[in-house]
Amino acid sequence: MTNCVSSTDAPAAPPRPTVYTVRMPTGLLGFEAIREYTLTFHPEEAPFGWLEARDGSGLAFVVVDPFLVVPEYRPDIPPPDVALLGLKGPEDALLLNIVTIHGPQKATVNLKGPVVINRHTWVGKQVVIGNAIEYSVQHPLPVQQSGE
Amino acid sequence: MLILSRKPGESIMIDGRIHVKVVRVEGEIVKVGIEAPPEVPVHRMEVYLEIQGSNRGAVVTQKPALPRLPVARADGDQTAVAPGHSGPRIVMRPPAQKRGTNAAVQENRP
Question: Looking at the domain assignment, is residue A27 inside a domain?
């Protein structure tokens, strides 16, 4: 541990990531057999997080809080999903949407099927929102172009 | 694919717990009713395939460098509950009283 080392001597330790375990009883669409994920946020990668399968497959998804990148997003969570997740109100829900990295400067986010997580139980589900028709599975993210 | 012919009002039972019913036929539209345990997700096929395809295209096995985005908040902890953060922007209608009641069979139209 470097607690006793003066700040002028050692390089600053990197900020520590926040890590959660998320249970998904119905899995992701197309990956239904994977029921547990680790959700990790590294501060230097904000606003993105990682959703990584805990089955040893190495499968991982980039996720993002949709409201930080699409402020006008208003997803309608269907009542059966509200009941299944035990959500008493919108404040109980953490939404994370899956990002596709197409290239170093191109990324899109799926707004039709957010992963909705109950903040208290850390149980989640990929939900098809009631107003999916209004949104895209490949909504472009405003990536900052380098060198401009 | 198992193919069964059903008249309006007739049903199919899958795995002893998933009930599929031909509710009504209106011209070319067949209204299909599904009763299933809450942990059994049911989706229109085209929406399912679209999201499945998007999920599969999003998988990474070797972590790429992530792009930089301009965002409203710079802090990394997405899970801190900021008052009012998720409140007005997530739409949630109260769950139905009881699954399977025949009161006002509501059509879900995503």
Answer: yes
Domain assignment present for residue A1? The answer is no
| Mean pLDDT of all residues belonging to chain A | 91
- Cβ-defined contact of A46 to B94 (cutoff 8 Å): no
A39: domain CATH number is 2.30.290.10
Provide the domain count of chain A: 1
Residue B61 lies in a domain: no
Within a domain: B5: no
pLDDT of amino acid A96? 98
Q: Which of A95, A101, A119 to mutate against chain B (most B CBs within 10 Å)?
A: A101
Q: What pTM, to 2 d.p., does this model score?
A: 0.81
Task: With respect to residue B35, please indicate whether it lies within any of the assigned structural domains.
Answer: yes
ipTM given for this complex? 0.86
Q: Is the bond preceding A47 in cis, omega lying within 30 degrees of 0?
A: yes
Answer whether B75 touches A (CB < 8 Å): yes
Distance between CA atoms of A133 and B90, rounded to whole angstroms? 16
* Nearest in space to B78 (alpha carbons), one of A111, A119, A58, A61: A119
Q: B25: domain range?
A: 11-56
- In this model, does residue B98 exceed pLDDT 90? no
**C-alpha separations of A88 from A137, B18, B89 in Å:** 27, 27, 15
The sign one gets for the Cα dihedral A107, A109, A115, A118 is positive
B90, B99, B108, best to mutate vs chain A, most A CBs in 10 Å: B90
Tally of structural domains, chain B: 1
Residue range A64-112, pLDDT digits in tens: 999 999 999 999 999 999 999 999 999 999 999 999 999 888 999 999 9
Is the pLDDT at A27 greater than 50? The verdict is yes
B residues 36-55 closer than 8 Å to A (CB): 38-41, 43, 47-48, 50-55
